[in-house]
Write a structure and sequence with these properties.
Blueprint: H1 3-14, H2 27-30, E1 38-40, H3 42-54, H4 57-62, H5 66-73, H6 81-101, E2 106-108
């Protein structure tokens, strides 16, 4: 995949570690699970939304080798991995478009 596509997906999923959300960086807030929370400013959210909305998703998934598709969704997955990834990409894109329209700050918090 090209760099802008990877950058948009990475930023959407991982946030920006340079954005200060340190108020959430303690076990009482995160439960001690996952990486440190990250955030995206409203301007970054709008940028991610525009990049995700501009992606040719069909081209993106066509670039994923067939043997990697199963790896991406997991060994115990049964079903069509492309349909699964498409459903989740659509939800991610729609979330960021809505967040951008509302001028929201987004926190990425994995647990």
């Amino acid at each position: 995949m090209d760099s802008p596509t990877l950058e948009a997906l990475n930023c959407a999923l991982n946030g920006d570690a340079s954005v200060d959300v340190s108020v959430l960086s303690h076990p009482e807030a995160t439960g001690g699970f996952g990486p440190t929370p990250t955030g995206l400013t409203p301007a970054s959210v709008a940028d991610v939304a525009a990049k995700l909305a501009g992606l040719d998703w069909g081209r993106v998934v066509a670039e994923i080798p067939a043997d990697w598709r199963e790896t991406i969704v997991g060994d115990d997955f049964s079903g069509d991995p492309l349909a699964y990834m498409t459903t989740h990409f659509t939800a991610l894109r729609d979330f960021y478009v809505e967040a951008a329209q509302r001028g929201l700050f987004v926190v990425s918090w994995w647990d």
